[in-house]
Design brief:
Blueprint (H helix, E strand, L loop, with lengths): L4 E9 L8 H23 L4 H14 L19 E7 L5 E7 L5 H11 L4 E3 H10 L13 H8 L22 E6 L5 E7 L20 E3 L5 E6 L1 H6 L2 H12 L3 H16 L3 E6 L5 E2 L6 E8 L5 E5 L3
Parallel strand pairs: 3-4
Antiparallel strand pairs: 1-5, 1-11, 2-3, 2-6, 5-6, 7-8, 8-9, 9-10, 11-12
Helix pairs in contact: 1-2, 2-3, 7-8
Length: about 300
């Protein structure tokens, strides 16, 4: 029997103890724990890794705490444009959507693109039309309204400044969600979902829906979901780079993650992190920022939940 494992993130950035009240911290920890344990239960039941990562990401998308789905940040026009991707490490099939509005769970739409279209990445109106054809649920504008996000956006709406989510320093805010898992058959999968960056130009697309940049899965190596300043993650092709170091250089999962996140990205100036699993059930949760909302659960071990560097 293989070792099952799931790992997820809810964004990375300069998240410090001082920035969160005890209540907020508790809410984040609970949401992360619930999503990790719900995905883990599916894996225990023998369900595929794809189901586990989709469920974990759906739960985080449904939480207003994270910058994805319901909690998606505002664009410069005061709208929500969401990106998501999912990939199967067994078949190397992938599906992604970019710049979609009104879709309740963009990760589910990404999975529909993977399974029910000839394409990998659909954007904007085309993706929304496909969602309607597939019977994927939409939600009204009010569902995505969040007073905190609105205030966050109001501070920068009249400027050309755009920012990542989640911290007190406007220029260092991240908040994407993502999950990776390995199932009882040793198949890995990855999924990522985001509202992108606060006050981003309409049409701006980040690393999240780009296979190889923010999301990647391959049974031979690992499954990866990234969070951080997307422009850097795209240029560094982060997720595929980790996989390549394992495939071509024989690095372990941890070595490959550390090389990319703690060395290469740092030199590049790209702040953020990622979650990764391999087919053997090993997990890595590296980040080069102050903190990263994260959780993992391996086989029958206790659930780990962390926010800051020390846990
Ligand atoms: N990577 C995401 C983006 O650039 C943002 C994030 O991780 O919070 O769209």
């Amino acid at each position: 029997m293989k070792n099952i494992a799931i790992a997820l993130h809810g964004g990375a950035g300069t998240i410090t103890r001082a920035a969160l009240t005890a209540e907020q911290e508790k809410a984040y920890r609970e949401a992360l724990r619930e999503a990790a344990e719900a995905g883990h239960r599916l894996l225990q039941e023998g369900k595929p890794a794809l189901d586990a990562v989709e469920l974990a990401v759906v739960l985080l998308e449904d939480s207003p705490l994270f910058n994805a789905g319901r909690g998606a940040v505002f664009t410069k026009e005061g709208k929500h444009e969401m990106d998501a991707a999912i990939m199967c490490g067994r078949t190397l099939e992938a599906g992604a959507v970019a710049g979609v509005q009104g879709v309740r769970n963009p990760v589910t739409l990404a999975r529909a693109v993977m399974q029910h279209s000839e394409h990998v990445l659909l954007s904007g109106r085309g993706a929304e039309e496909f969602a309607r054809d597939q019977g994927i649920p939409f939600a009204p504008e009010s569902y995505f309204f969040n007073a905190f996000r609105y205030r966050q956006w109001s501070e920068v709406r009249d400027s050309d400044e755009f920012m990542l989510d989640h911290t007190e320093q406007p220029e260092k805010k991240f908040g994407t969600v993502g999950a990776v898992a390995v199932d009882l058959d040793g198949n890995v999968a990855a999924a990522t979902s985001t509202g992108g960056m606060t006050n981003k130009r309409y049409g701006r697309i980040g690393d999240t829906p780009l296979i190889g940049a923010g999301t990647y899965a391959n049974n031979k190596t690992c499954a990866i979901s990234c969070t951080g300043h997307g422009e850097f993650f795209m240029r560094a092709v982060v997720a595929y780079d980790v996989s390549c170091l394992m495939e071509y250089r024989g690095y372990t999962l941890q070595q490959a993650c550390d090389e990319v996140v703690l060395h290469k990205l740092v030199q590049f100036g790209g702040e953020g992190g990622l979650v990764a699993v391999n087919a053997a059930g090993e997990v890595a949760l590296p980040f080069n920022s102050e903190g990263m909302y994260r959780a993992s659960k391996k086989s029958s071990e206790a659930t780990f939940v962390g926010i800051y560097k020390e846990g």
